[in-house]
Specification:
heterodimer; A: 306 residues; mainly beta; Immunoglobulin-like; 13-stranded mixed sheet; 10% helix; globular; disordered N terminus; B: 782 residues; Maltoporin, Chain A; 22-stranded antiparallel barrel
């Protein structure tokens, strides 16, 4: 989907006539002051965080204001409760470091604000899926064209569970640095039955923009994050509204879904999403990204089943 | 009740028409029939819409789509006149004491006269015919209008008519009286054209050089036509001269074209072949730093037609179109798409008064997306059988009847994934098959000397055919399960489509018209983008999606003055649309097997006032049109299920089209367009998530793009005609045009960018499609 739109966009540009220029526009911005939630619980044992901020008018052009003084807890359907405490600065509320989620449990985020309003968000922690194979290529060619810089091209495969409808995020770490921090770079997808039960992702990392900082022969960590359908919808909508929702060839803009529900049904819900995620992680070292001073150009295979 | 009305209408029409048709060889006592064809003397081609009338009685008719006419009169001596704008009228005196064949062959007048002409026929036709909402465009008109890249085009031309809006600058998509782009039927020699765009719409599939006649209905659609809610573009190809060979063509900046026509058997069998090829990509090496090698961007198409006159009563036609677009980036990503049509027709005259046509039509549209080693294809194929009878009962009544049956076969997708990568997968979706049928009966009648009516009824039907798997949805549009249907019809929809048009001629220079029509649409465009894409696909109504339905009433006043040199019209309409197809927020249109859960249906209404003033003759010709219109839509789950302005709601729309013959060999043309900016959904608030600024919207389409306006100019120089043996051998002209003369950057959409250095700062940018663009085209004709 993403690539199809990209294809069309590129070919439109090839037509060579379209341009952009800055414009002053009155957006009829009204009062925007809704609660925004960004946070998750995962199968990793760690200090989980939930960030609370406020929405603003569109051209506010300042960092979002943190929501302070809230009472925040995460609980599951097995009766476990995890209170979160405010870090005192950026709107982040933190669990203790020993918290982890259990696949199959349903997690509920409860928020009580200073003004007495209460919000709730529910998500299910899906059973994880596991990598089968990770292929990678180090090359300076993109669609056969020399782009003047080397980058990694990753191709991962895994076998899904029974129904082929799980959703994922994939994160890549190089020498312990996350290289795809925003959803522009994170590959998310649902596999479909026509893929014959075998999911695959094809990821391009270290594009030309990152040329200066390409680490050769890095230590790589791939995280396969299994997420709920609700969060998948949120991420895809966030992506389409901020990355691809820009031209003639997109559908009508629409608000991004949320699971932040205001307990007072007469009042608007919050924005953002509280998600539950299960992880599979695979680490390996790349030792031969160059051959005789040239990029290897051929697929290298790490077969995890063997 | 509907069924009773329908049965009564059919019964009444049958009672009147059938006995007469059966006895059509027998002319009423003391009356005889004059029939024949009207042709262009220079090419021998039949002329569609030529007027034939009897001077003594004023009785008259126009030639049909095959150039045929028929008039029945009492015995006597008459003077019969044939005329067509741009041609010298021809009169023949006859003594009518038996049925008579009378053919006319009209000589063209000075070509400049017909440079800008919308009616193409008798200048007061707008006052005497009830076909309100119909425009007939001359090919000369289309060629005279300045165009983007110098590429004149049928569809770009109709976008200048009142009540017709464009889906985006430079695009082929158009909106008619508040209807969506998927609600317009486009026919090329009766074959449905599902996607008329070449190169994203810079060109349409209609090659002017191969076209003979263009009729556009935005209302008052005759009963013989149906299948779309809003409009009909009926394009007919030339037959080719049965008398002499001819070659014409043009060389432009982006494309060239060549047409050859001539006799195969003189005066009996002729052909025409016309082809085009674009070559925008030959300039790519000049931009090697921006455009990689192996990038391709081109289209080609070909029209061909053969007709064979077996004898005076029987004639065969076969015509076809084949076109393909290819856009390939660096040999690695590709979009390709194209239409194919094939039409075979058999005309038979049962008698001088009963004309018949039987057509077998094939239509195919496909697109493919290819990236790396994955290819995705989708297609639609139609096989269509169509029969029509026209019975010229008497000078005051022409009765038409017929049937149409179409087999639609949709292939939602074929995926071939990873042919060269570690995993190769291939999947073909189930075909979706359906039958669409229609029968119709209509009568075009004169009541007294001042009233004309055209009334009829069309009965339409869609049948879904198994084998098929149809998903079942819950109230939240989630797929619950799937029902498998075996072979045979498993779902049927029916529609009754009454059509009524009335013309009352108040004086020689004034008339009022009224029209009512109901239309059904059983095949829907699966697209929710702001502008049509070449990869848009279609689907048929099914148990989850009802047919779309539209009722429209319109009323008009028509006034000609200064001996029909000027024509003024004012038309107003109200249109209500039911079960219109839209798509949920964030619909994923590429997941075709899940399309049922993406669809939302609703209703809409539109109304408008269309004013037009035309100057029809003289050195200065053209028109000014102004439209005030509003269009609103209400769709389930969207905008809190409240009405909102449709994407193409542009209240004010003004067009000026003019041509001035400065010198006998120099013609200047101008068009200027203005419209209110299109509605858009733009953010009013924002929130931050994962480092990204995300929008918060209020109501759908609550804000608008800036107003749109643009001026285009062109000049055509008729170059010296080269003669051989004292006769013209090569006629040629040079066309220079400037698109967007004052270089206005009209916004096609508004985008928002996050500042690279300060991620909390957002700025707005407009996307504009075209700046000023000059072009030159050389045209020639042997």
């Amino acid at each position: 989907m993403k690539n199809n739109i990209l294809t069309i966009g590129i070919l439109s540009a090839v037509l060579g006539t379209a341009c952009t220029e800055k414009i002053d526009i009155d957006l009829n911005e009204g009062e925007n002051n809704r609660l925004v939630v960004e946070g998750y619980i995962s199968t990793d044992t760690m200090q989980h965080s939930v960030r609370l901020t406020r929405s603003t008018s569109y051209f506010y052009n300042q960092p979002s204001a943190p929501e302070e003084g809230a009472i925040v807890t995460i609980s599951d359907n097995e009766g476990n409760h995890f209170p979160l405490t405010y870090d005192g600065k950026t709107g982040n509320y933190l669990t203790s470091p020993d918290v982890f989620g259990v696949p199959g449990h349903t997690y509920t985020l409860n928020i009580k604000l200073k003004d007495g309003s209460e919000y709730e968000a529910v998500d299910e922690l899906i059973e994880p899926n596991f990598f089968d194979t990770v292929y990678y290529e180090y090359t300076n060619l993109q669609y056969g064209v020399d782009i003047g810089a080397y980058y990694y091209w990753f191709y991962t495969t895994f076998t899904e569970k029974e129904f082929f409808d799980d959703k994922y995020l994939i994160y890549y770490y190089f020498n312990d640095s996350l290289w795809n921090p925003t959803f522009d770079d994170v590959l998310y997808a649902s596999t479909a039955s026509y893929m014959d039960g075998c999911g695959h992702f094809e990821d391009v990392l270290f594009s030309a923009e990152h040329e200066d900082s390409i680490p050769h022969n890095p230590h790589v960590r791939c995280d396969l994050v299994t997420i709920s359908t609700g969060y998948y919808n949120f991420v895809t909508q966030l992506y389409s509204e901020t990355v691809t929702q820009t031209g003639l060839f997109a559908g009508p803009p629409a608000n991004i879904c949320t699971n932040i529900i205001n307990k007072d049904k007469e009042k608007p819900n919050g924005l953002g999403y509280f998600s539950a995620r299960s992880y599979d992680k695979y680490e390996f070292d790349i030792k031969n990204d160059m051959k005789d001073g040239k990029p290897m150009k051929d697929w290298q295979k790490n077969d995890l089943k063997n | 009740m509907k069924r009773i009305i329908c049965l009564l209408a059919i019964g009444l029409a049958t009672k009147i028409a059938l006995p007469q048709m059966i006895a059509s060889n027998v002319t009423p006592q003391g009356k005889y029939t004059i029939s024949g064809t009207v042709t262009d003397a220079s090419t021998g081609e039949e002329m569609i819409g030529a007027t034939v009338y009897v001077v003594e009685t004023g009785a008259g008719t126009i030639t049909n789509a095959y150039g045929f006419y028929s008039i029945t009169l009492p015995e006597g001596k008459y003077s019969v006149m044939a005329n067509f704008l741009g041609y010298a009228p021809q009169s023949k005196n006859v003594t009518l004491d038996h049925n008579l064949k009378l053919n006319f062959s009209l000589e063209a007048e000075s070509t400049q006269i017909a440079q800008v002409d919308v009616t193409g026929e008798k200048l007061n036709r707008n006052l005497v015919k009830p076909d309100m909402g119909m425009e007939k465009l001359q090919i000369a008109t289309i060629k005279s209008i300045p165009a983007l890249f110098g590429e004149t085009d049928v569809i770009k031309s109709i976008q200048f008519l009142p009540g017709v809006g464009t889906s985006g600058e430079g695009f082929i998509g158009y909106n008619v009286r508040g209807g969506g782009t998927g609600q317009n039927m486009m026919l090329l020699d009766e074959a449905t054209v599902y996607n008329a765009a070449h190169l994203f719409g810079i060109f349409s599939v209609f090659n002017n050089d191969a076209l003979k006649d263009v009729k556009f209905y935005k209302g008052g659609m005759p009963a013989e036509y149906g299948g779309r809610l809003s409009s009909l573009l009926d394009v007919r190809m030339k037959e080719g001269s049965p008398q002499k060979f001819g070659v014409n063509g043009g060389i432009g900046l982006l494309s060239s074209r060549l047409t050859v026509d001539g006799p195969i058997i003189k005066d009996r069998c002729s052909f025409i072949v016309s082809g085009r090829r674009s070559y925008m990509d030959i300039f790519f090496p000049l931009y090697r730093d921006q455009i990689p090698d192996d990038t391709k961007l081109y289209f080609y198409d070909m029209n061909a037609k053969v007709n064979f006159k077996i004898n005076d009563n029987n004639r065969l036609f076969a015509s076809g179109y084949f076109g393909r677009d290819v856009m390939n980036y660096a040999g690695a990503m590709q979009i390709d798409y194209g239409n194919r049509t094939l039409t075979t027709r058999y005309n038979h005259l049962f008698s001088d008064r009963l004309f018949s046509n039987l057509s077998v039509i094939y239509s195919h549209f496909m697109y493919g997306l290819e990236e790396s080693d994955t290819r995705w294809e989708s297609s639609i194929r139609d096989w269509n059988l169509k029969g029509d009878l026209t019975f010229f009962a008497n000078p005051k009544s022409t009765i038409k009847g017929g049937f149409q049956s179409t087999y639609h076969k949709f292939t939602p997708f074929i995926v071939k994934a990873g042919a060269n990568s570690p995993n190769y997968m291939k999947n073909v979706s189930e075909f979706n098959k359906s039958l669409e049928h229609a029968v119709y009966l209509s009568n075009e009648a004169k009541i007294g000397g001042l009233i004309d009516v055209d009334y009829g009824i069309r009965l339409s039907m869609l049948q879904n055919i198994g084998k098929a798997d149809v998903v079942n949805l819950d109230e939240n549009y989630n797929i619950v399960d799937t029902t498998h249907y075996g072979k045979g019809v498993f779902n049927t929809y029916k529609g009754i489509e009454p059509r009524f048009s009335l013309n009352i001629r108040l004086t020689d220079h004034n008339s009022i018209k009224a029209n009512f029509q109901q239309t059904y649409q059983y095949v829907h465009l699966a697209s929710n983008t702001m502008s049509p894409l070449p990869i848009d696909s279609w689907f048929a109504s099914n148990p989850n999606v009802k047919p779309e339905r539209c009722r429209m009433v319109s009323l008009g006043y028509f006034h000609n003055f200064q001996q029909d040199m000027y024509a003024f019209s004012a038309e107003t309409y109200y249109k209500k649309m039911y079960d219109i197809v839209d798509f949920k927020d964030h619909a994923d249109m590429f997941v075709s097997d899940d399309i049922a859960s993406q669809i939302r249906t609703g209703q809409g209404y539109s109304y408008g006032l269309e004013l037009m003033l035309k100057k029809q003759e003289g050195r200065f010709t053209g028109w000014i049109s102004y439209t005030y219109s509003r269009t609103y839509t209400k769709v389930a789950t969207i905008n809190n299920e409240e009405y909102y302005p449709s994407n193409y709601d542009k209240p004010h729309d003004l067009s000026v089209v003019a041509t001035y013959d400065v010198l006998p060999r120099l013609h200047l043309s101008l068009n200027w367009v203005y419209s209110t900016g299109a509605p858009r959904t733009l953010p009013t608030g924002r929130f931050e998530y994962n480092g990204v600024i995300a929008p918060v919207y209020a109501e759908r389409n609550a804000l608008r793009l800036p107003d749109f306006h643009r001026l285009d100019l062109s000049a055509t120089f008729d170059l010296k005609t080269i003669e051989r043996k004292g006769k013209p051998w090569l006629e040629q002209n040079l066309n220079l045009s400037i698109y967007n003369v004052y270089n206005r950057h009209n916004a096609a959409s508004i985008m928002f960018e996050q500042d690279e250095h300060d991620p909390s700062v957002m700025t707005a940018e407009k996307l504009y499609m075209f700046s000023i663009f000059p072009s030159v085209t050389y045209n020639f004709k042997f």
